[in-house]
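Objective 1.3, modelling of assemblies. Example input:
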Amino acid sequence: MTVAAPPLFAFDSSYVRELGGLYEPWQAVPAPAPRLLALNEELATELGVDPNALRSPDRVAVLAGNAMPEGASPVAQAYAGHQFGAYSPRLGDGRALLLGEVVDVHGRRRDIHLKGSGRTPFARGGDGKAAVGPMLREYLIGEGMHALGIPTTRALAVVATGDTVARETLLPGAVLTRVAASHVRVGTFEYAARGGDPALVWRLADHVIARHHPDASEADNPYLALFERVVDVQASLVADWMLVGFIHGVMNTDNMTISGETIDYGPCAFMDAFDPSTVFSSIDYAGRYAYGNQPQIARWNLARLAETLLPLFDADTDRAAAAATEVLQSFPDRFQRYWSKGMQAKLGLAQGQEGDGALIDDLLALLRAQRVDYTSFFRALSAAVLGDATSTRALFAEPSAFDGWAERWRARLSSERVDFGAVAEAMNGVNPVYIPRNHLVEEALAAATAGDMAPFNRLLDVLVHPFDERPGLERYSEPAPLGFGEYRTFCGT
Ligand code: AMP
Ligand code: MG
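Predicted structure (tokens):
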């Protein structure tokens, strides 16, 4: 039983209005003893909600799924998806609900969504629940990504349910309130295109054009333009990930958005030592979603999206396929452009020049060969610009190899005749000191699971200012201690 609560959000739910056939109306399973663990005050304000009011018991009840806010139209969204390459025709929100959409103070439409709110018609064998640790993990890493300037869904709150969740052990349960530009995924298109109603995929395409890529509507072929925009935002997003050493970990088509936001922080993690073959997920035996495979996988997923849109591109199947192929083939170049531009900035180079590609490739080969900590290296490099390479050299087992590269890099920098002080400062604005390092995240989540939120709150405070080096926070910038061992992450936690 859910009870009425006073108005909280001014809902306007276009998804529910326009996309019948792509959801099931549903209610949350009430939590026995809701308790607010984390609240994103900045995001609440952005959504036009008074953060203090969200702390009152009747509002926490909303964030737990125990009370439906006025105007909400809770639904479980339907989607399909290719998981590790294999197609599942019916996935959907097995443990989540879309409460509705609000237009934020900047005029942006955002989904308000509960994750961990009980079984739905899409739950299959799942229990519909989520544990405190993984939901706080999504909060922490999502906010870290946002602070790094990377498009992402965000956490508004995590509420402990007072319930227990059976995983490998019994864990405290939680509900995450997730905010997203939308939850429409490549998998939503796969579901719509194969559901037997040919009109549905057209309606879905029109919905996302209006919502995420409105300029596509002006193009000669709006649906092809939509596809081109999605290819572009994904090329940009994956380049962003690669530039900070982020490994998503489960790039199934149901975990890839049409908006270009990062979604689903299950088995993701940041790489320490640079190695493109890095995999953290416990079930990714073949390394399909390894760091270095991410651009290729994004392209593969976009091919799955193109397949659902072919009838919209052109009534003639050959022409439709040719048009789709041409756009899809632009992915590697787009990715390369975003990546190169980002790498140039990381290296302090204002403009691209011929030979930069080799400079970057040689550096990455060096980092890989000597297993250098990726984040520490780039951050240390700004001191090297100013003539002090001590901390950078210290990251190499054999610094002489770095010295050779650094000589070329310095010559290249000098060719731009810029003020080195300004270059170092600009580099510090793109090369973070603090990222959600695996050992720090685990430490914070273990404490939170045992009831102590202090380490989580401290780490969150560090991660939301990733570029500002602060005295006393040295341990937050260091790689995992040797004793931390090999890191493993898990899906469906
Ligand atoms: P994910 O790995 O989180 O992207 O989830 C893949 C699919 O499994 C989605 O359809 C989820 O809704 C569903 N799912 C994951 N965990 C659970 C759970 N505990 N209960 C019900 N459904 C779940
Ligand atoms: Mg998912």
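Residues 222-244 form the longest helix (23 residues).
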